[in-house]
Design brief:
The protein is α/β, with parallel strands linked by helices. 23% of the residues lie in helices and 27% in strands. The strands form three sheets. It has a nine-stranded mixed β-sheet with strand order 5-6-8-7-9-10-11-12-13, with helices on both faces. The protein has a two-stranded antiparallel sheet with strand order 1-4. It has a two-stranded antiparallel ribbon with strand order 2-3. The N terminus is likely disordered.
């Protein structure tokens, strides 16, 4: 069940204490909200699904059963669309994920049902050629997002104001490029991204997944540089493994990616503490 409430952004600092979230000022007597300490814009918080738990985020599937179907449109290679079968959830955020250089859709396909089972429409795609560089992958990702939100059988279930771009390796570099050129992309999830020499000075919430032993998209020339250049909410999680670390199921990586999408694509403040949970090799702009 989807519930939407209008909230005034808290002026108090959010802090994590024993796994709990501290922050908002209490209502004043008489039921009216207390005035914030500083001026704040009104935000919309949307709670989709059950209250989050660590067990729910690290499980191999989220709370929703998923279906899938193949999809093919203009400007990108075919892909697979994953979606919750529960049609009572209202309009959902949507994401397109792109593979890396010389790699097929199958290399990133596990992310589709994993993320969709938490209440998103997710499309994993191939690329027109496996040698396409990041700018071409960005163009294809944007084409897939347009098809997904306007022509796909799932279009009526998607909120086109809540779109995300993700990808691995050159697909990760492409997702960063796609977000720079497409104002409809609100959240970015590059995984072991490769696009050396690039900077991304935009404020869109961006979660970077890095591999500790990456000798292909070395973090010092890619992920670390991208993280430093971003100006908005951002996080970088480094997990063990080679450049291929995002291509096999990883509970820690999925837990943080899903929490990031729920917090910033769904605007669900219940996930703030999960986004901010401290961990070795995890840096972020918390508190959010």
């Amino acid at each position: 069940m989807k519930t939407t409430t209008r909230l005034v952004a808290c002026a108090a600092t959010l802090a994590i204490a024993s796994g709990g979230l501290l922050g908002c000022t209490k209502p004043a007597s008489g039921g009216a909200p207390a005035a914030p300490a500083a001026a704040a814009d009104e935000v919309t918080a949307s709670a989709i699904g059950p209250n989050p738990t660590e067990a729910m985020l690290t499980a191999s599937r989220g709370p929703y059963a998923t279906g899938s179907q193949r999809g093919n449109g203009s400007g990108f290679a075919s892909g697979t669309v994953y979606y919750p079968t529960d049609t009572s959830l209202g309009r959902l955020g949507a994401m397109v994920i792109v593979p890396g250089f010389l790699s097929a859709e199958s290399s990133i396909q596990w992310w589709g049902p994993r993320i969709a089972s938490h209440g998103f429409v997710v499309m994993t795609i191939g690329t027109n050629t496996v040698t396409d560089f990041p700018p071409s992958r960005a163009s294809q990702q944007n084409a897939a997002l347009r098809w997904l939100t306007t022509q796909s059988p799932l279009a009526s279930r998607i909120d086109s104001t809540r779109l995300a771009a993700g990808g691995w390796s050159m697909g990760g570099g492409g997702s960063l490029d796609a977000a720079r050129s497409n104002p409809d992309i609100k959240v970015v999830v590059p995984m072991a991204p490769w696009n050396p020499g690039s900077r991304y000075a935009y404020s869109k919430p961006t979660f970077i997944l890095s591999c500790a032993s990456d000798s292909v998209a070395g973090n010092s020339a890619n992920s670390n540089v991208f993280y430093s250049s971003l100006t908005g909410e951002k996080a970088q999680l480094t997990i063990s493994g080679s450049h291929f670390c995002p291509t096999t199921p990883n509970a820690t990586a999925a837990r943080y990616v899903v929490a990031w999408l729920k917090r910033f694509l769904d605007n669900d403040e219940r996930y703030s503490s999960f986004v901010c949970t401290p961990r070795t090799s995890y840096r972020n702009t918390c508190p959010v």
